[in-house]
Amino acid sequence: MKELDFIGYLVVSLYYVGTYDMKTQKHPAWALAHKKPGTELRFLHGNYYLYAYTSVYGKEKKRDRKISGPLLGRISEKQGFIPSGKRKLEQALDARNIAKPHCKEYGVSLLINRKFSRTIDLLSQFFPDHWKLILAIAYCRLVYHCPLKNIPFRLSQSFLPVYYRLLPGNIREVKAFKNCLLEAGLKDAVIVADKGFYSKKNVDLLLAEKLRFILPLKRDNTLIDYSLLANNTFKKQNQYFVHEKRIIWFQEYSLPWDKRQSMFLFLDESLRIKEEQDYLVRIATHPDDHSIDYYHERRHAFGTLTLLTGIKRKPAEVIYQGYKSRMTIEVLFDGMKNVLEADHTYMQNEQTLEGWMFVNHITLQWYQQLYSELKAKGLLKLYSVNDYIQLLTDLKKISINGEWHFNEITKTASRMMQKLGVSYE
What are the sequence ranges of the domains in the chain? Predict the structure, then answer.
């Protein structure tokens, strides 16, 4: 017999011998003792192993078909059943009943409970059946500016007013301001209006009613004196302050015809450069409305803000921040208009609209309270209200095996919380 033929004969012989042994071999009692329904014994390499299996009915052969499952463990005559490493881990996890970890926003929820507890007390007092829902919606408006349809999702990601008056948008009379102040019982209030409100008549009415005010002027108002900017001497008196990491230069002007009011002209160089660049670009893209001649004529007005005020003996920085507080609140109103299309509301009745505006009013109160806190602690040059809120969302709690633990927090958020005295312990 040739060598190759002999090797082939030997392989075939060994195959039949192995098959014969596997089919005819009887498993010992100590191995069979561990065989349970849904398991099968296998004798491999001189050892017994226990595998899981399932039976599935096969349509083609019209009978059950066995599908092998995972290895459960090894069986030894002396040691008995020895679970596999993977099976040991599964059993350990099952014994501890470890649930899937959950990570929830906690920082702003903590802030609301600690900083706005007065609001929570009043809501629970006057709205005992709905105060939690009102609080939840106000939370979503403060953090995410989201519409009603997105509130359930935002709440699923979270751990969890004094006076307002709703007026038609076309009412701009000074009497409305005074009535609001009287009805609210406010004695020390400042009216901050937009650029469209100024007129000599309105200013005279505010002064006659002894109302304090801050009014921005349009840049083409004839009251504004740009001469110091035009001849490049605006900064010679070295009058400036820092607001949200930006240098703000200013000049104060008294009005000789009326000592009850004064005017501040502010210059933000960062804004000036941006506006100047934007205008020069528009000369090429929108030549009908922009020209190089007009640029040279009005370039000294870029980056400026002029405020007329009836508040006397207050630093320029206080007047500027007073106006900017209105601007930050307007961001919320713009968000409400743009995201919710609240300027053409789809509320079905006046009561629903009142409720929605009430919730937004609570949010604005919180916003203003945070702004006042940043202002009182001299932190507006470092953080905006939005910075305050968004950095707090970095503080999260994570649920591990049914217990809540604080998650890691960024250094920036940690530093801010220390400066504001917000503790999460």
Answer: 25-96, 99-160+332-425, 190-313
